[in-house]
Write a structure and sequence with these properties.
Thrombin, subunit H, 6-stranded antiparallel β-barrel
């Protein structure tokens, strides 16, 4: 039986994103959900747990679009349907990203 290992509450967020894993070309993705500790995306590309890189996505903050770029580490990659669901743990969040995600999570 699988146990959900995420430590914080998450909220559904479906927007376009870009995965830029270290040493690889940028890959289009779509966000699935978001928390203060990480996020998951869906993509057509398989990635390996432990890989690091960046995820870039846009979210509305106080009604204004804000681009979030953050360092991430792949926690898991699962084939689901016709795409991969990738779980990321945030490595570092800058002050702007932390504030935007905090507002979104309310």
């Amino acid at each position: 039986m699988l146990v959900d290992q995420r430590q914080s509450a998450r909220k559904i967020m479906r927007v376009r994103a870009m995965m830029v894993l270290d040493g690889a070309a940028p890959v289009a993705a779509r966000t699935f959900d978001l928390s203060m500790g990480g996020m998951s995306v869906t993509t057509g590309t398989r990635v390996n747990p432990g890989q690091t890189g960046q995820v870039v996505f846009e979210m509305l903050v106080d009604g204004k679009p804000q681009i979030i770029t953050t360092r991430v580490k792949v926690a898991h990659c699962i084939f689901s349907g016709d795409e991969f669901k990738v779980g990321f743990m945030f490595q570092t969040l800058n002050a702007d990203a932390t504030a935007a995600i905090t507002k979104f999570m309310r």
